[in-house]
Structures are given as C-alpha cells and as structure tokens.
Amino acid sequence: MKILFMSDLLPYYKKIFSEELEKIGIKNFELSDNYSETDTDVEFIIYSPIMLGGKLLKRDFSKFKKLKAVLSLYAGIEDVIHNKTLNCPLIKMIDKDGLTNSMVEWCLAHTLRLHLGIDRHIYGQDGIWRHKIKHPIAKDRTIGILGLGELGKSVALLLSQLGFNIYGWSRTKKKIKGVNSLVGCAGLRQTLRKSEILILLLPLTDNTKFILNEKNLSLLPKKSQLINAGRGELIDDRALIRKLRSGHIQNATLDVFQKEPLPKEHPYWSLPNVTVTPHIAADTPILSSSKVLAQNIKDLTENRLPAGVVDVDRGY
Asked: Considering the domain 99-276 in this protein, what is its CATH number?
C-alpha cells in the first residue's frame, strides 16, 4: 500500500503515523511525499494545503488511478472540495481527542475572558482600583453559536454546562442538551438578536460566505462581542470594522482571516477593540491525528466509510 503525503508535514508525521498503522495491523505500506511521481500505486493521499508565492498550490488527483480516498489533515476542506480532479471520497479530520479539544479550550478561554471583562484588568494596570465593576454570572449571559457540527456542538455543550444560555444555529436542527437549536433565516435572526457573545464555527460554503454582513451584524445587540474561530470569509471585514468603530460591537476576537498571515497594514492590528490570534484555535496534534488517519485508512480498506466523509454537494 502506498500512502502519499500531499503535504509538507511528512517529516513530523512519518515515525508516529507509521507506528499507528502498524498497531492496527497495517504492515505493508510505504509513505512518500514525492508528488512528482507518476505513480499509479498510490491508494491514499494525506492532504494539507500548501501556499507557494502567496497562492494555493493546485493539485491534480486524476493521475492516481488506484486512489481510494483523500484524507485531510484539517477540519476545513474548502480549498480542495471544488477540485474537479478529485473523484474519490474526501475525508475531513475529526479528532475528538486532539483538534476538537483544542477548539473547545480556545473558545472557552476567550468566552470567559470576554464574559468576565478580564481585558480591563490586564490593560488597566494604572493604579486604579476598579472593584465596583461587576460582570454578570453565566446564567445571565446569552451566547450564540453559529455552526453546530462536531466543533460547535462540543463548544456549546461545555458552555451550557457552565450555565450560559446557549442559542445555536445550523443547517439542520440539532438535539443538544441545554442548547436552543434554531434553523433557517428566522432562526439566524433570532440567534443574532439574542447573542451577547457570538461564536462563529461554521464551515465556509456558498451559503455561509460573508454571513456576517452589514445587515446581520446590525441584528446583534449593542455592545455585543464576537469570536471567530471558523473561517475568515464568514465575515465582511469592512462591515465589521464599521461596527467596531461605531461601538455597536464592543470587541472582536479573531483567529481566522480572509488572507493569512494577516497583512501588517490591516486595520484589525490597530483597532484597540480587536484581538488577533494567528489561526491557533484548533491545532491538529500529530499523535491523535495519526491515530485518526490510521483508523480511517483501515476502515476504508475494509469497505467501511469513516466519520468525516465530506458531502460535496453540501460543501462540508
């Protein structure tokens, strides 16, 4: 079995991934990252996007005649899903022990930071004793989450367990304990109007691109707070900047952007009510993701579809 790493990460994965394949009984395999090979024996491709000269490197999957599946190292697959040379299952990364936990921890940390108003103390080391500033407790705070997939569901569950009022919006209605699940245009409007803190965890599709535009941002309560750990193109940057400057949105914590790395001249860097983090919310740990990749390959070789099979028509 030949497994091609269509990625620059093979040096980090080779030893651990090989060990995980062997643990589950896959012995005869070869790992390669030589994409230039005209090798018809490649059965599986491990994929991650590579930028070259500021542009995404385009990949041709059609030459791999025995290709059974492409397995993404990341949860986001919008850069490959529309590749017309891809004619086999695309499997996105679902790593509950690694990637999902990373996202939950990051969202929890920044939600509590905003909820408790911690920034005013971190940046207020000026000798003033601000003991009269009180924050609400969790049960008196409403949090909206756009996107209730594997990541959004896990974030919603934990925040609900802490006592927050949770409104979640997704393509289909979900049954999640402690979460008001809403769908459709009316559900989106209701979620936005309720959200004192709004967390974006949607996939990027034709239907979600720039979902936070001028109109929808205006539905958020005055002095609302925003967290984006989904995709940069979920937000119309110019509209958000206007809302931040007007004070309608109190602050925004942004981990993903339309262009990455975020250009030095971008207004997000200089706006005092914006926190920029460098796309670190959902790390893909090598050990846990290697276990997932190995199990996915075993499932596929035994004619079972693993979790994470992408619906091309749906976009995720």
From this structure: 3.40.50.720
